[in-house]
Amino acid sequence: MTETRYQPDVLGPDFEQLVLPQPADYEGPVVCTLVRACHPPAGTRAVLYVHGFTDYFFQRDMAAEYQRHGFRFYALDLRKYGRSWLPHQTANNVRDLREYYADLDAALAVLLAEGCRTIVLSGHSTGGLIVALYAQEGARRAAVAALFLNSPFLEMHQSWLNRAVAVPLAAAVGRFAPGLKIPANLPTAYGESLHQRYRGEWDYHLPWKPIEVFPVNTGWLRAIHAGHRRVARGLSIPQPVLVLHSDQTVTEKGWSEQYFEADGVLNVRHIRELSPRLGPRVTVAAIPGGMHDLVLSRPAVRALVYRELFQWLTAVLPGAA
């Protein structure tokens, strides 16, 4: 029954999408969108990938790598992102990260209905934060066999004063005035390092992943701040977790070639220090020369990312596919 509801996807004939309607929220109707790679390998292993902030799934190469290693590939465009962003909605807008749990519940239900039995839940940046929290308390968390977090967003890349004072203050305002706009304060140089129209290697839909990130509001900041506080207090995710991140943070102001070989969005020290708090079975490794989205790094670097990932998956997952 699920098979007949898939539609052609924007990525072309190798992918198809399934729109999953969700209950309306404070902005009106809501959907999320599950993307599936066609021609899946045999077996019951699968991955469900969740994108980052001002982002959506477009990484064809990543899907091909998972399929080459025997995993069915699925990706989820969360509500108000990419394929799921409806005209009446504010891009990326949520007031509690738990709002995304319904999206993950729906996606995992489809994977299970399609025969997936060993499911890897993967998230990049903000998606990494979301899937980690879901693995702690989501309704279908028991369906997840392992987590792979690609440069997860576990702390603000801000000065100590901003993190200690300004962010908590703005988050408090978000309780009463969630729609109040605030600067996102993210450099355009990172986007320029990715898209082939500028300095990068990749082609993707700029209206869904613009060079200058979407504005944020105090309600969104409050949701992120609450998620960060929960990570800082410590989670107890029982599944094995792999966290990969770059070995360095961009330090240059403005455009620099450093964006091609370092994390231009987050502070890798935060990732390294906070990741062990996710649970008792966390593996953390730095990728030399990695960009913020590691799988968009230069070819030799992303080859190393996939080597680390699939060696780890081979070690931690049950033997039978």
Description:
The structure is a single chain. This protein has helices at 60-68, 101-113, 126-137, 160-176, 189-194, 218-233, 268-274, 299-316, and strands at residues 7-9, 12-25, 28-37, 45-50, 72-77, 118-124, 144-150, 181-182, 216-217, 241-246, 282-287. The protein is an alpha/beta fold and 321 residues long. The chain has one domain: 3-Layer(aba) Sandwich (Rossmann fold).
List the helices and strands and how they pair.
Elements: E1 7-9, E2 12-25, E3 28-37, E4 45-50, H1 60-68, E5 72-77, H2 101-113, E6 118-124, H3 126-137, E7 144-150, H4 160-176, E8 181-182, H5 189-194, E9 216-217, H6 218-233, E10 241-246, H7 268-274, E11 282-287, H8 299-316
Parallel strand pairs: 4-5, 4-6, 6-7, 7-10, 10-11
Antiparallel strand pairs: 1-2, 2-3, 3-5, 8-9
Helix pairs in contact: 4-6
C-alpha end-to-end distance: 24 Å
What strand line-up does the widest sheet have?
Answer: 1-2-3-5-4-6-7-10-11
Uncertain residue ranges? none
> What is the mean predicted local confidence, pLDDT?
93
Main beta sheet:
9 strands, mixed
DSSP summary: helix tally: 8
Number of E-type strands: 11
At the fourth level of CATH, the homologous superfamily is Alpha/Beta hydrolase fold, catalytic domain
What's the order of the H and E elements?
A: EEEEHEHEHEHEHEHEHEH
Classify the helix fraction into a percent range.
Answer: 25-40%
Tell me what portion of residues adopts beta-strand conformation: 15-25%
Specify the CATH architecture.
Answer: 3-Layer(aba) Sandwich
CATH topology term: Rossmann fold
**CATH top level label:** Alpha Beta
Radius of gyration: 18 Å
Shape: globular
Q: Supply the helix-strand structural class.
A: alpha/beta
- What oligomeric state do the depicted chains represent? single chain
